[in-house]
Amino acid sequence: MESIDLPRQFARTRRFSLGVPRGFTVSPDGERVLFVRSTAGDDPVGRLWLYEDGAERVLADPRALGAEGPVPEAERVRRERARETTQGVVAYASDHPARVAAFTLGGALWVVETAGGPPRRIRTAGPAVDPRPSPDGALIAYVCDSALRVVGADGTGDRALAEPEGAAVTYGLADHVAAESMDRQRGFWWSPKSDALLVARVDASAVRVWWLSDPAHPERPPRAVRYPAAGTANAETSLHIVRTDGTRTAVVTPERAADHPVAEQWTDDAFDYVPTARWDAHGPLITLQTRDQRSVHLLEVDPETGRTRLLGRRHDPAWLELMPGTPLRLESGRVVRHGDVQGRTRGLWVGDTSTPGGLEVREVLAAAGERLWFTASTEPTEVHVWTFDHAGHGPGPERRSGTGTLKQISSGPGVHTAAVGGDTVVLDSRTPDGQTVTVLRGGEPVGRIAVYAEEPVVTPRPRHLTLGKRELRGALYLPSWYEPGSGKLPVLLCPYSGPGIQLVVHARAWWTVVAQWFAEQGYAVLIADGRGTPGRGEDWAKAVHGDQLTPVLDDQVAAVHAAAERFPDLDPERVGIRGWSFGGYLAAGAVLHRPDVFHAAVAGAAPSDLRLYDTHWKERYLGHPDVRPAAYENCSLVAHAHRLSRPLMLVHGLSDDNVLPVHMLRLSSALLAAGRPHTVLPLSGASHLLSQEDQAANLLRLELDFLNKHLKPTARPAHAALPGGHA
Questions:
Q1: Hey, which of 58, 136, 646, 720 would disulfide with 481, CB 3.0 to 4.6 Å?
Q2: Which string of DSSP letters, residue by residue, matches 580-604?
Q3: What is the pTM of this model?
Q4: 129 shares its domain with 176
């Protein structure tokens, strides 16, 4: 039978993400689980599902409703920030008991009840974005034309609660920096009593406007993008208590941080950022972060007066990392916050009680009573689900920490996460064999939620390694057909190695499949996570402060050398590197600065001029570009274009509004001005995450052809079958 083409499968399945359940909501009584999933591994249309009494059923099927239409611009932007590539139901929200769920299709608002009955379309004032039912399920709040509105779940009483005062003002939406760099996708939060909302007002009038056009369609006008590049003005975010009766109160927040640490070169103590907000039984809880990201204040809000009270503050001489899910309060009102614990480990604190050193906390998932659910690692290549019972009543095998009790919920190699409600845990596990979703009650498995993702036609065969004096975690992929000693293999690095993402994990993922596919073409593929990546403590993460290129590149060089010493079949005279986004930046930097090690590179969506990336992400590491210009100059690719002496392919989507195409164009222009030959591949209509099937499939082939030309991979024996094919 003819082999399935891996690049085509990779593109058709949207990186093997289709058919995978996600977005779990577990009802407080643990009886119901809501989630989104398509019906097959090549089906791009998401449905809303309910798992109840051990069985699944569809609550909303867009194809049955015949409701899909054009996506409103604000929703398109929201999906781009969330890297959403599917259609149909891509997100939803429910009331507190998970009895009523709301979602949009083509800007139309729909409501469905989990008890039964078909979805109902709710008439709105215009295209709806981010609908969220009130906790009691009686009202639906949504954003329309930058205004925050509410409508009854029965379709009556649609009205505006907060309307924009200008063209650059929005209510209820996250600004670019919050969504892209702080992982805050929301702009409003219901009160537990369903009578008011905490609402973000964003005024982007001071943010520089950039124009993004599609050269393939000159008949279309360019799109305005308000993009806060490093060193330029941010959007101004303020918070308001907006009541359902139409009255509102401004939240009074401090303008500057108290006791702000003074840096050597740049200090900005103004509160430019609102990283988190929530409204629990104790009232609204918010955090404010300074422009230089060295201070964070935790504040509680009086919903009647809007006044705030300081609950805590943190400072750091480099920057303060944000941890998803924190801060929050337990039922008793005790505040859960993240911070350093013994050994500069990222841990959790509840009062004077902390998680132990060596347990690197990744994300807080939920709280029930005095019990906290979170993910953490004792080994950076694995992530497990844990509970921390502050009262010390954790069931089963326990591990004491101060006055609390720790228990590990997940087991076996993998990357695990969970959703929680009552005594029900939905355990989502990515392991070396694939992905499973297990429903636990009382700690015991009671069922599974189906995963319909396609099985890759190439099976990853990683060898997990610890490399060099810094004990870099790495994974080496060799051809399945290769016989040791039969000839040297060129080395291909496929890193990301930037903040917030790990690639070297004990789990099958799309990048492990792609790495094995490149290996099957005659390469030894090496992936290594160096300094700046998560999972290894504060000092490891902050080793890139002031220089995001040199230490990261040094670690990739060290990984190549260490792997070549351990495996004599690797050829250090034929080394290529490919990557996307920060990985693309690293790939281009590799051939510019270390041509003695790297002999060819493919750089996709590479931020080549770091002054053109956003404030929160770039100033965190390099400071203000007007105060620390040398840091930006040293890390810039454009400034060092004249150094290129190796083959380089630049790939960029022309509709990318995260790393805009100007990065690729300026680097190419600088290379041309320096007389340095290079290859440019512009992708018409593509954003930062490729979703067009032909582009995604053929890009892998074109990368391979480019690398083959310059690295001349080891030929596969005629008798050896090639998994995944290559057209």
A1: 720
A2: ETHHHHHHHHHHHH-TTT--EEEEE
A3: 0.95
A4: no
